[in-house]
Amino acid sequence: MGDHLAGAGLLLAVLLTCRPRGFLQGHEVSLSLAQVSEVRWAACSMLRWPAGQAPRMGTFIGVYLPCLQNILGVILFLRLTWIVGVAGVLESFLIVAMCCTCTMLTAISMSAIATNGVVPAGGSYYMISRSLGPEFGGAVGLCFYLGTTFAGAMYILGTIEIFLTYISPGATIFQAEAVGGEAAAMLHNMRVYGTCTLVLMALVVFVGVKYVNKLALVFLACVVLSILAIYAGVIKSAFDPPDIPVCLLGNRTLSRRSFDVCIKARVVQNGSATSALWGLFCNGSLPSATCDEYFTQNNVTEIQGIPGAASGVFLENLWSAYAQAGAFVEKEGVPSVPVAEESRAGALPYVLTDIAASFTLLVGIYFPSVTGIMAGSNRSGDLRDAQKSIPTGTILAIVTTSFIYLSCIVLFGACIEGVVLRDKFGEALQGNLVIGMLAWPSPWVIVIGSFFSTCGAGLQSLTGAPRLLQAIARDGIIPFLQVFGHGKANGEPTWALLLTVLICETGILIASLDSVAPILSMFFLMCYLFVNLACAVQTLLRTPNWRPRFKYYHWTLSFLGMSLCLALMFICSWYYALSAMLIASCIYKYIEYRGAEKEWGDGIRGLSLNAARYALLRVEHGPPHTKNWRPQVLVMLNLDTEQAVKHPRLLSFTSQLKAGKGLTIVGSVLEGTYLDKHLEAEQAEENIRSLMSAEKTKGFCQLVVSFSLRDGMSHLIQSAGLGGLKHNTVLMAWPASWKQEDNPFSWKNFVDTVRDTTAAHQALLVAKNIDAFPQNQERFSGGHIDVWWIVHDGGMLMLLPFLLCQHKVWRKCRMRIFTVAQVDDNSIQMKKDLQMFLYHLRISAEVEVVEMVENDISAFTYERTLMMEQRSQMLKQMQLSKNEQEREAQLIHDRNTASHTTAAARTQAPPTPDKVQMTWTREKLIAEKHRNKDASLSGFKDLFSMKPEWGNLDQSNVRRMHTAVKLNGVVLSKSQDAQLVLLNMPGPPKNRQGDENYMEFLEVLTEGLNRVLLVRGGGREVITIYS
Question: Which of 32, 198, 511, 856 could link 187 by a cystine bridge, Cβ 3.0 to 4.6 Å?
Answer without folding.
Answer: 511
